[in-house]
Amino acid sequence: MATSVKNSFMPPNFVSNLNQVLKKRNNDEEDKSTDPSSSSVSSKPDHVDEENGSKPRILVINADGIESIGLTYLVQALVKEGLYNVNVCAPQLAKSVSGHSVTFGETVAVSSVKMNGATAYEVSGTPVDCVSLALSGALFSWSKPMLVVSGINRGSTCGHHMFYSGVIAGAREALISGVPSLSISLNWKKDQSQESDFKDAASLSVTIIKNAIKDVENGVFPKRCGLSIQIPTNPSTKKGFKVTKQSSWRSTLCWHATSTKRHPSAGYMSNQYGIGIQLAQLGRDASAAGAARRITTQKKNLEIESVGVAGKCGSDRAVKKYFRLEFVDKDLDEMDEDMDVKALENNFVAITPISSSSYIEPEIHTAAADWIASSFKGDQ
C-alpha cells in the first residue's frame, strides 16, 4: 500500500508515542526532584547519561569511515533532535567489506574527532573493533548505550552481502554484547543517487531510531536480534516498511588481473573517496614495524598483467600477480516479494532481523515481524 510521505518522515502515531515517552520522563523527573527520600546516589542505568539528565545514550558506528557522508548526516540529524547523548566511534578509513574481522595482535590507534554535539573518535581498525572498544569501557566512561546504530552505509547489504558487510558486522557485535542494534544502509546507485539522498535517509532513520529507543525503554523491542534496515534509492518516495527475510542473492564477484602501474585498490577507492584517502591510508599503514618487516622479506619480483604469462622462473625470483575485485550486479530473477532485495527494489524500506548466529529462529522472526507491524502501523 502506498504511503504519503511528508518531509519529516514522521507519521502521527510516531509523534504520539514519542510525546507519551517524553511526558512520562518529565513526570518521573519531577517526582524525583520533589521526593525528600531521594538519596545522592544515582540509580540511573548505565545507558542514561548523568550529565544530560534522562537523555538515552546512543552509540553510532559505521563501516564507510569517519568522514563518510552517511555518518555525517545521521549524527547531525540525531544531535538536532536534542533527545539523545550521541557518541561516535568509527573507522578512520572505509572498511565496508571487512565482514566480522577484528584487529588482533596489532596496536589500534584512536584519535578524538570534532563533531558538533557529539563525542567522537576515529579508530584505525574495523567496525567490529569500534563497537568492541566502545563497549569495553576503555574508551568512553560508560560501557552500555541504550542502542547501537551502525550506518548509514553507502550501498545495500541484502542477501549474502550480509556476510561481507562491515556495517552489519558492527550491529551484530553489539548484539553479541547484549546491546540492541540497528544496521542502516542506503541502496546507492551510481547513475541515480546523489548526496542529498543521505540527508533524506538520515531523517527516515531518526524516525526508526525513535521507535527503537521508545520500545527498548519499555522492554518491548525484539529480544535476541538486531534489525538490518535497507532504505530504497529514493527515500522520499518510499512505499512503506516491510519485514523481510534474508535472500540468497549477491552480486557476481569478478577478479581482474591488473598491473603494478595501478594501485590494486585504486578502482574501488576512486569511486568512493579519491586519491586523498588513498594517500592517507598508505601513510597510516606504513608503521615502523611494517616497514621493517617488508625490508627483511624483500625479494626480486616479476610483474605480470594476466594469468598464465609468467612462465618458469628461477629459484631466486618470486612471481607477484595483481588482481582487483569488483562487484557486478546481476538480475534478481524469480524471487519472493518478502525477500530483502526484492522489497528494496520495489521501493520499500526492507527490515530484516539479524541474529548473533547465521540462522534466524522462527520465533525470533515472528517477534520482530510483530514489532515492525505495530511500530509502523499505517505505513505498510
UniProtKB/TrEMBL annotation:
Residues 19-53 are annotated as: Disordered. InterPro entries: SurE, SurE-like_Pase/nucleotidase, SurE-like_sf. It holds the Pfam family SurE. The keyword Nucleotide-binding does not apply. Gene3D superfamilies: Survival protein SurE-like phosphatase/nucleotidase. Residues 44-53 have a biased composition (Basic and acidic residues). Keywords: Hydrolase, Metal-binding. Residues 58-250 form the Survival protein SurE-like phosphatase/nucleotidase domain. GO terms for molecular function: metal ion binding; nucleotidase activity. Belongs to the SurE nucleotidase family. This is Survival protein SurE-like phosphatase/nucleotidase domain-containing protein.
